[in-house]
Amino acid sequence: MELNTILPKIIANNQLHARWLNTLSLMENTGARKISASEDPATVTYIILKHAAEEHRHAFYLKKQIEKTGNSCLPTYSPEYLIAPAYSRYYLNQLDIDVCRYLKKKLQLSGAELRFAAYLLVTYAIEVRADELYPIYQEALDNAASKVNVKSIILEEEGHLEEMINQLQHFSPDWEVHAKKAVDMETRLFSSWVDNLATEVN
User: Fold this and answer.
1) What does the DSSP assignment read for the chain?
2) pTM of the model
């Protein structure tokens, strides 16, 4: 099932919508924590700090949006407050693992170099996805005349993608080959995530 079929069903049910927002918040928070975990204490850059801070802010912003659904009782990221909780957690963690395996095998990276390269490729793949997902979600919100909106996130995610491309260009002359691999990995995982969402929503 496609996301544009699932989202109107989610938005039409306030309880489901609240759990969806909480799930997106979890994923933004997971991304922010992964960025922070990849930082080198001495050489962390302005762009990486900015990106981690903005992902944390997105997690907070989405959490705040839950109030607009009439639900204020989703205090944590416990499974009962999420949609497809197991797969929502698995999705980003597995992408990280898959990309690290690829980088070890293809570029023989390890240690800090591996962590930084994985940050670049995983984050790039997620930003490509975010550039697709949030506009589809916003369109569904507009169609439903929902009070919830994610327009500010859309603007920032567009900026993130440009920043990731810039960093990748400095990382490797073959960055597009590596980035495509990461996007292919993410596409498979995202497809399974959407299938898991559909099972809960229907």
Assistant:
1) --HHHHHHHHHHSHHHHHHHHHHHHHHHHHHHHHHHHH--TTT--HHHHHHHHHHHHHHHHHHHHGGGGT-----S--GGGSSSHHHHHHHHHHHHHHHHHHHHHHH---HHHHHHHHHHHHHHHHHHHHHHHHHHHHHHHHHTT-S---HHHHHHHHHHHHHHHHHHHHH-TTHHHHHHHHHHHHHHHHHHHHHHHHHHH-
2) 0.94
Residues of the chain with pLDDT under 50: none
Render pLDDT for 72-124 as a digit per residue (tens, 0 to 9).
789 999 999 999 999 999 999 999 999 999 999 999 999 989 999 999 999 99
Structural domains of the chain, count: 1
CA angle 116, 127, 76 (to 5 degrees): 90
pLDDT at position 143 is 97
Q: What span, in angstroms and rounded, lies between the C-alpha atoms of 22 and 13?
A: 14
Q: Are residues 126 and 58 in contact, defined by beta-carbon separation less than 8 angstroms?
A: no
Range of the domain at 87: 3-201
